[in-house]
Amino acid sequence: MKPLSVFRVIDMKISTVGFLILLIFASFGHQALAQQPQPPAGGTPPQIEGFVPVDTLPPSEQLPAARLVIAAYAFVWLAVFGYVWSLWRRLAKVEGELQQLAKRAGANTR
Amino acid sequence: MFVPALVVTAGMFVIAPIFIALVRFEGTMGLVQKIFYFHFPPAILMLGSAIMSGVASAWFLAKRRPSADHLALAAAELTVLFGVITLVTGPLWARKAWGVWWQWDARLTMSLLLWMIFIAYLLLRKYGGPGSEILSAGLAVFGMANVPFIYVSVNVWRTIHPKTTVVPTLPVDMGGALWFSVAAFVLLYLMLLTARVRLEQQRAAVEQIYLQFEE
Fold this sequence. Notes:
A: 110 residues; B: globular
């Protein structure tokens, strides 16, 4: 009979240890599943499921959508008008400077 | 040309809220979904403007044309403007629809990063001193490279943000109001871009005159 090589022996040992680890995990996993709280009869309560329909919340818990919509539209207009105002101010300043320089250049050439 | 365009844009922005108000409510979100009509167009313009700034910057780096630099700077400023609108209206909608103001998912985080890259661009232009236009042009190209990732992020990574397939599948009335709103925002964008480029041209003219005086 041909003797087994060292690598083959190591390979067999790894397989055996791996199989044992799998067995242990499987038995613990089964126990963990068995220990999980079972849903009560009549369906999962909303707090365990994690989602509650918005329309079933009390009014104090509901966010008023109108305020958010008004805030969003108001912000868009504020940002646009703010930018237009800043652009208009900068343009007026540069054009004023340009006119002054043109006058100065005219005076220098006379 | 500028004044008629201004009148048309103003008219469209008067009509847009009426269209939006008349459109039916979305089934699950109700009234708060109306933010979508003023959230999506600025978001698209933020991405488009970043691309415009990046392309103009690449053009400037290659040819060193001042007109390319003016366009890149104007588009960068508008990326920041439309970016802040997107980043504020989004959370206002999300607070009601998702239950949170913000979520560190791929789409939102990358959009914030893009906005911060263009903030960095403007800061570099303002405080970077001579030669900052070349450095900032490189930054804008880097910012532009972010855009395709932002666009596909909702389809590739797990995220709570709706996918890109939502807009093409909207019902006709909702889609109509949305595209009308997009058209109004695009007109507004073009007008602001024209005015901002003009400002930069005037500044360049002032600098040129000062240089002539020094000579």
